[in-house]
Amino acid sequence: MFRRTVLAALAATVALTLAGCGDDTPAASSPSDSPSAAASLSGTVNVFAAASLTESFTQIGKDFEAAHPGVKVTFNFAGSSALAQQINQGAPADVFASAAPKNMDQVTDKNSPTTFVTNTLEIAVPPGNPAKITGLKDFGDKSKKIALCAPQVPCGAASETVFKAAGGTPQPDSLEQDVKAALTKVSLGEVDASLVYKTDVQAAKGKVEGIEFPEASEAVNKYPIATLTKAPNADGAKAFVDYVLSDKGKAVLTAAGFATP
Amino acid sequence: MTLHAEIRVARGEFDLSLDLTVEPGEVVALLGPNGAGKTTALRAISGLLPLGDGRIALDEEVWDEPPRTFRTPDRRPIGVVFQDYLLFDHLNCLENVAFGLRARGVDKHAARAEATRWLDTVGLSSYARSRPRSLSGGQAQRVALVRALATSPSLLLLDEPLAALDASTTLHVRAELGQHLDRFPGHTLLVTHDPLDAMVLADRLVIVEHGRVVQEGRPTEIARRPRTDYVAQLVGLNLYRGRASGNTVSLSEGGTITLAEPASGPVHVAFPPTAVSLYPEAPSGSPRNTWPATVTGIEQHAHTVRVRLTATPAGPTTLLADITPAAVADLHLSPGQPLHASLKATEIHTYPV
Amino acid sequence: MSRRSRSTIGRLPLVLLLPALLGLAFLLIPLVGLLAKAPWSTLPSRLFSTDVWDALRLSLLCATAATAMCMVLGIPLAWLLARAPIPGRGVIRALVTVPLVLPPVVGGVALLLVLGRRGLVGQHLDAWFGISLPFTTAGVIVAEAFVAMPFLVISVEGALRAADPRYEEAAATLGAGRWLTFRRVTLPSIAPGVVAGAVLCWARALGEFGATITFAGNFPGRTTTMPLAVYLALETDPDVAVVLSLVLLIVSVVVLASLRERWISGLR
């Protein structure tokens, strides 16, 4: 555990140094068709984003860079709570996109957040659904192998909510540390079913199958995004958030399985 | 029951080829300079090194006969005392001695009782619980000996058993080892480079040089009639080869020696360094066997001084003389100094090559 | 003895002493960070939750069982590498270190691919014997042993190489076969290396996270070891994570210090 903390600290230090250098580089001329129409965007935008945003934000980052030559977007994808801690420990983040409002709340130095997407749970089963899972009631069947997210992490908290709504007690064999781990167990066929986000099922298309269930609407997961008050590149941060909220950004996110509010 | 060993081992440049027999109760010493192949022979007999060719057998019991037969060391009735003893440091003395018995299936209680008895025979029963590293060299040697003897082996092998001891303890330990070997009814093979160990402990010597047996016989025989320079040096004799005709021997290295008794044909000529006297001037009367000589080296021995000389062209190329320290002082000996060496013909010993 | 060691320290060159102290500080600074961050006032109440003790008990049990497994399999493997005339020894030795190089999570996935319910070997274990390792305590032990074994193998192999094989020869001439010689002579003579390897192995197993959570999952009382509990606590309550880490640290330091003393003194 310490190793992770130390590494994060080292990474933060390196990032800080790099960001500092970035500030000194002369600004490249910004094209006039930039959506934010910022006078001169330059340097690096450090985006700390929830792991579940990895694919869509990477795409958005490329699009953003194409729209703003001279700006570089770097991402730090990790669990939202780890990111919140890194930011509070002084990591040089410009933008924070969290998978839960709670983790956004933990960050003190931020501008007011906006919910940019929502995500709902879906049952993930291995291809062909060998255990014939049909709905949440199968999660209480002890003969089935079930992996759920641990209640400490957002997808686990959401899972608890839907089970409460469905009125059943799940019998999990494992409480996974994050949604990707839960998904891995499904795709390897180690478990018969898990509850993961729609976006995760979408990303793992072909390796897992998704089954929708009505109680999912009880736990709509809101993703807030915010620029940070201590952002080394405030202009870049604002431009990036604007881009995420633009139609172009929304299109990428919807394609990944997110719903937009 | 006789141990027959025809040892053929080739290792790179070195090849060892020697035949040995050891009778029951006999102590045979394998004597030779370092690198002669003595230890290799011992390892082959004990099974730590498989033969390349040849045969090792105790009577009808074949131990090694490539390519068909090979008995691993643990299946040979042997006991080995290694040069540095190789006592197990994690076991106390009693457990070291009991190790062989335990390995051969004796139950713990009986093995300990037997080991205690063995430690008693070398006066070390009070060290039963001591770790080997706390023992003196002589004590460790005795523990190693009884560890090897405890399993009542048919063949006892000793690899330089006294080499690790300091001079003051060697004398005592050697005498004691001799007593144990006398009592041991099996075959004993002793490997050593020390002629004194070999002479004192062995019934028969086998001299090995460059992987070959060069001379074999009883210690007195070898001491009297060395056949190689190495053996002569070991037994402290001047040795030359030459051709005798009447009372004169023409040495093969040049020079002549006059004998007291006539001989003929190729002979060995041997005499002790004490038979040589040194004079600053040619002695009057000019006896036979007096040569001008030059000092090439001086060594202090226990009670005498050994002087190395060269007496060419009239006499031997190298000549050893033992003189008293007083004589050294009288002669003001120093290397390079010219002298006259005189040999008493009556102390010369000749025997056919 | 003390006089000798004092004079030795007196002669220590600064060029060694300085980096040595820096190195020690580097290793200990994260610990200082934890101690500084620890919520001392609420510490007792946080400690007396059954979850903590369950996780601790499971951690100690699994690390010890994994170490035992590593010794049973690893010492013979080390012997093979050090003594047996096998071809491709260098390659095999390099392969032994694979678990060190592999990110533990990848190691966990690899274990799932082999020993999982659908794994190469695991599917047969499941079909024939009804044995399924993932999500069980046995699975935790397997994952920890996989990651920790190289530490044991490497240090035991080193000890074997340094040991004088002539003692084994002496044992053979006393009538001991290969196995007896190994047990009664080789093993005791390399005991310090085995102890050092076992200590490393145990410590590595105790701190194991990635392979464990990937292969064995996370279920309290069954597969939630301390590192897993720490990781999950960090998600919600970092203070608890700090407390758990400290408990794990203190227990491991106490166990290692006391065992080491006993083992080493037992050898003398």
TrEMBL record, chain A:
Signal peptide residues on this chain, from the entry's feature table: 1-19
Assembly mode: The complex is composed of two ATP-binding proteins (ModC), two transmembrane proteins (ModB) and a solute-binding protein (ModA).
Keyword Chloroplast: no
InterPro entries reported for this sequence: ModA, ModA/WtpA
Listed GO MF terms: metal ion binding; molybdate ion binding
Protein name: Molybdate-binding protein ModA
Cited function: Involved in the transport of molybdenum into the cell. Part of the binding-protein-dependent transport system ModABCD.
Membrane topology per record: Lipid-anchor
Keywords: Cell membrane, Membrane, Metal-binding, Molybdenum, Signal, Transport, Tungsten
GO cellular-component term (any): plasma membrane
Superkingdom of this protein's organism: Bacteria
CDD domains with a match to the protein in the record: PBP2_ModA_like_1 (cd13538)
Residues bound to molybdate: 52, 80, 179, 197
Record-linked Pfam families: SBP_bac_11 (PF13531)
Protein location: Cell membrane
Family statement drawn from the similarity comment of this UniProt entry: Belongs to the bacterial solute-binding protein ModA family.
Record-linked SUPFAM superfamilies: Periplasmic binding protein-like II
GO biological process: molybdate ion transport
Major localization listed first in the record, in broad terms: membrane
Gene: modA
TM segment ranges: none
From TrEMBL, chain B:
Ribosomal protein as UniProt keyword: no
This protein's record includes keyword Nucleotide-binding: yes
Family annotation (InterPro entries): AAA+_ATPase, ABC_SmlMolc_Importer, ABC_transporter-like_ATP-bd, ABC_transporter-like_CS, Mo/tungstate-bd_C_term_dom, Mop_domain, P-loop_NTPase, Transp-assoc_OB_typ1
Residue span, ABC transporter domain: 1-235
Gene Ontology BP annotations: molybdate ion transport
One MF term in the entry's GO annotations: ATP binding
Record keywords, A-Z: ATP-binding, Molybdenum, Nucleotide-binding, Transport
Cross-referenced SMART domains: AAA
Domain Mop: 284-352
Pfam families named in the record: ABC_tran (PF00005), TOBE (PF03459)
Protein name: ATP-binding cassette domain-containing protein
Automatic annotation (TrEMBL), chain C:
Protein location: Cell membrane
Sections of the chain in a coiled coil: none
TM stretches of this protein: 12-36, 56-82, 94-115, 127-156, 185-205, 240-259
Record membrane topology: Multi-pass membrane protein
GO MF annotation, one: molybdate ion transmembrane transporter activity
Keywords: Cell membrane, Membrane, Molybdenum, Transmembrane, Transmembrane helix, Transport
Domain ABC transmembrane type-1, chain residue ranges per copy: 56-259
InterPro entries: MetI-like (IPR000515), MetI-like_sf (IPR035906), ModB_ABC (IPR011867), NifC_ABC_porter (IPR006469)
Gene Ontology cellular-component annotations: plasma membrane
Function of the protein: Part of the binding-protein-dependent transport system for molybdenum; probably responsible for the translocation of the substrate across the membrane.
Family statement: Belongs to the binding-protein-dependent transport system permease family. CysTW subfamily.
Name of this protein: Molybdenum transport system permease
Species of provenance: Kribbella capetownensis
